[in-house]
């Protein structure tokens, strides 16, 4: 059983917690030991947020440190750049192309880097980028961005599609199952 | 048996359920809040939000007097508020078992300081257990009740952000059928006056010795403490999250003395473990408590010498310090601008701060979402110390600087924080003839900790209707004549009202009232765009 480290990053309020919960469930159903570390409280409010999902034979630490993540699932382009050091050098970044300006940029005290995803590629790291919001809207709800990204990640991690869909059906509210299934497919088949 | 992926906090709640606990009273505080939220889902347990941690702790003591297994939860700084009852509850002991969970926040993800709660356990001579994952959070909670009743002591359960807010697999069991213990008046035991307390203190010292003996023996049989021997070169003594980090960083290249009881600490077990390894490390976040204990025992250890006294640890810090090993990683070739947390779009606090910004006021701040207004662009806070300090510290500031300063200064405090400990400061202002202007930011919810009901919003922890404190009537009852209610989205009206109150030669209470924008009950107009 290989151990797997998944870093999920974004901006507080984007729905990173559901993605981590689903990832956790998928690996538990596969028989792994799992730890998921979440961020609650102050940093939730529009700040940079990170969730760690770790799966393996036996997982001790709940956190992922620099150079340890196999995959980063990022909900925002600048956050992909910020958390890049946490990825293994042969890891993969799955990034939403969305740009959300942080307060220092809005105030004109800092600049939003031009094309953060390009900068990651320049650092020699593989990136799968997608406009997850457009795909989520295509699926039927802007709120399903997290499931689109999960779909892309599942493909990259080689997780069985049926296992993911089972986890989604068991986790999301009944009335959103259809939209989320569609969102997952759009990400998976990207 | 069923396995579930539970937060450490949810696992504590499950432990309370399984231990047959009947009464839970807490005040919210990150990272402890979800324990009591999870408890409120169990019909078998009475749960409530108390106005503050001292009240919560005292409710738990009372329930224990009454023969029930009882519980309270709080964050580390909350235990300062509850310290008064804690220290004397230690002398009294329990009838029904009593446990208080206290969640530390190394790294200060959501706190104003980084204090180590083990200090309170030592000073109050209250035993303390510390789990290192969700399964232990559940198991130790249950064990704490058995020990509480056996040793006649309230127990502390120490958590930290990473234990409280990490999910790991837990095996759950059924609820124990715990009968209410009979109540018998026992003045010598339960009334702490000097004559009784002198005897009680002697009892506490003997109890501490007995629990030390337990920590050396039975704690190992139960798995609360354990040795894991892999190597005779490197040994590690650790507890809680640092055990998890050490085990991750060093794997089977080290041996471990994993401590589940952190006060009192074992003695012989440490001396014996030290003999089994050549180099012995103590790995503990925040204060060097285990290390100091080892030094006192004459056991040579490496601790503070290589590990920092600040912040949260992780496997990388340990791998670097002990194995001099660092991972390779990539980084983008560019400055990544910071993304600090900010007040939410549509937040009523934004309106209030925006309305008052041009007045250039001294703003005595407090603990809550609105503390985020300290940062640019709002920059609307001069000080922030602890829960309730905005009101009393404003009175101190104005007393020091005189009535002209009072006309250019305000306190800002949230609804829940005001009930927690702002009221007493306001009484101080009225009683001592102050003229300060205090603004209560009433958004109908305890916001920062994730939306808990409170005594001002008329709903219990379960969302049932209850009597709400009438803030205007309360202010009048303590002697404030000038009570004004404003809508923070009415920028002009809010500014004018506050300006008028600042000029008044008597104390004023301004209530800035608008519900939190994230409440489900709040309806939003469609977004407007500027052409």
Structure in words:
The complex is a heterodimer of chains A (190) and B (531). Chain A is an alpha/beta fold and 190 residues long. Chain A has eight helices and six strands, in the order βαβββαβααβαααα. Chain A has a single domain, classed as Pyruvate-ferredoxin Oxidoreductase, domain 3. Chain A has helices spanning 16-29, 77-83, 103-106, 116-122, 132-139, 145-157, 161-171, 177-188; strands at 4-11, 33-37, 48-56, 69-74, 87-96, 126-130. A six-stranded mixed β-sheet of chain A has the order 2-3-1-4-5-6, with helices on both faces. Chain A is globular and about 45 Å long. The mean pLDDT of chain A is 94. Chain B is of the alpha/beta class. Chain B folds into three domains: 2-216, Thiamin diphosphate (ThDP)-binding fold, Pyr/PP domains (Rossmann fold, 3-Layer(aba) Sandwich), CATH 3.40.50.970; 226-323, Rossmann fold, CATH 3.40.50.920; 348-513, Thiamin diphosphate (ThDP)-binding fold, Pyr/PP domains (Rossmann fold). Chain B is 39% helix and 17% strand. Chain B is built from 21 helices and 18 strands. Chain B has helices at residues 8-18, 33-39, 53-65, 76-81, 83-92, 118-124, 134-151, 161-164, 187-190, 194-216, 218-222, 240-250, 268-275, 289-296, 315-323, 348-356, 389-401, 403-406, 415-431, 471-477, 491-503, and strands at 3-7, 23-26, 46-49, 70-75, 98-104, 128-129, 155-160, 166-171, 226-228, 234-239, 255-259, 261-263, 279-283, 362-364, 409-414, 437-442, 482-486, 508-513. In chain B, helix 7 (134-151) links the parallel strand 6 and strand 7. The radius of gyration of chain B is 25 Å and the shape is globular. The mean pLDDT of chain B is 97. Classes of the chains: A alpha/beta (190), B alpha/beta (531). The interface between A and B is large, with 59 and 52 residues. Strand 2 (33-37) of chain A pairs antiparallel with strand 8 (166-171) of chain B.
